[in-house]
Design a protein that fits this description.
The complex is a heterodimer of chains A (104) and B (169).
Chain A lengths: L5 H21 L3 H25 L6 H31 L13
Chain B lengths: L1 H27 L3 H21 L3 H26 L14 H21 L6 H5 L4 H10 L2 H22 L4
Classes of the chains: A mainly alpha (104), B mainly alpha (169).
Chain lengths: 104, 169
């Protein structure tokens, strides 16, 4: 009935998570880091939906959680990009290693 | 019905392949605007994966909210901040090689562990079909408290974003 096994989805989301984590660790541009965090959030969403479809006790729990996670990701993106714009206005940079105001 | 399943499976593998390649483009391309376009492709691929998991409502939400709203925000932020096309600025910091090695090891470990794990599949949820009506009913009945909390969080985040984004005369 369901063609693709569960482990395939989990491997897929694990690869997506690793790529996103690499971007979040390595990129210098703050907008790039935020986009990598979106990748990580999407990987976790795939995991939630796949597990709720294959192994959970109730079929709707994972999808409800994914709705909440998408809302939280939207608000995180809005606040994060507002912070980026505020920093750019004051410091004229979007690179993380040039934002050393709190570092001595 | 057997050839139809076969075609669907091929399509699914193609989708995941395209998604992974686009995700690699998101983290490696130099031009940040191209990265945003690749991220749109990744989000569409994830929406197709939701359809394969029989979560159509989530696929629609994904396209409306992520591709429609969040990516618009990201692209606006890119166009308002960065000096696109400046090839001389390095886009990665010095931990690049170290991170690649460590995350490759982590991925290999994860894939091995996942492929070895004995999953106890639940036939009840596997045959259940969670449609939009069911999701809405359970949001209004069983999960109404987190639903209210998330609306408070959303309004706080929006007010905070407006406050942060306002120019101080």
């Amino acid at each position: 009935m369901s063609g693709v096994p569960l482990s395939y989805y989990v491997v897929f989301s694990g690869l997506l998570f690793s790529i996103g984590l690499y971007g979040a660790l390595v990129r210098r541009n703050v907008v790039g880091i935020l986009m990598s965090i979106e990748l990580i959030i999407n990987a976790s969403n795939i995991n939630l939906v796949a597990f709720s479809r294959y192994v959970s006790m109730k079929p709707e729990v994972g999808q409800i959680f994914v709705i909440f996670v998408i809302v939280l990701a939207a608000s995180a993106a809005a606040v994060g990009l507002a912070i980026v714009l505020a920093i750019y206005r004051n410091r004229k940079t979007v690179y993380t290693d040039e934002m050393n105001l709190l570092k001595w | 019905m057997e050839p139809l399943y076969f075609i669907a499976r091929i399509g699914f593998y193609l989708t995941t392949l395209i998604t992974i390649v686009a995700a690699l483009m998101v983290v490696t391309l130099r031009n940040i605007f191209h990265c945003a376009l690749a991220l749109v492709l990744v989000l569409l691929g994830v929406a197709v994966t939701y359809i394969f998991l029989k979560a159509e409502f989530l696929a629609v939400i994904q396209i409306l909210l992520y591709v429609g709203a969040i990516m618009t925000l990201v692209i606006f932020a890119i166009m308002l901040t960065s000096r696109i096309g400046d090839q001389s600025i390095p886009q990665t910091n010095r931990q690049s090689l170290f991170s690649v090695g460590l995350l490759t090891l982590f991925s290999l470990f994860l894939v091995g562990a996942v492929l070895k794990a004995p999953w106890k599949l639940n036939p009840v949820t596997l045959s259940a079909h969670v449609d939009t009506r069911y999701l809405g009913l359970s949001l209004m009945k069983e999960y109404v408290f987190p639903f209210e909390i998330i609306s408070v969080v959303l309004i706080v985040a929006l007010v905070g974003a407006v406050m942060l984004g306002r120019s101080d005369q």
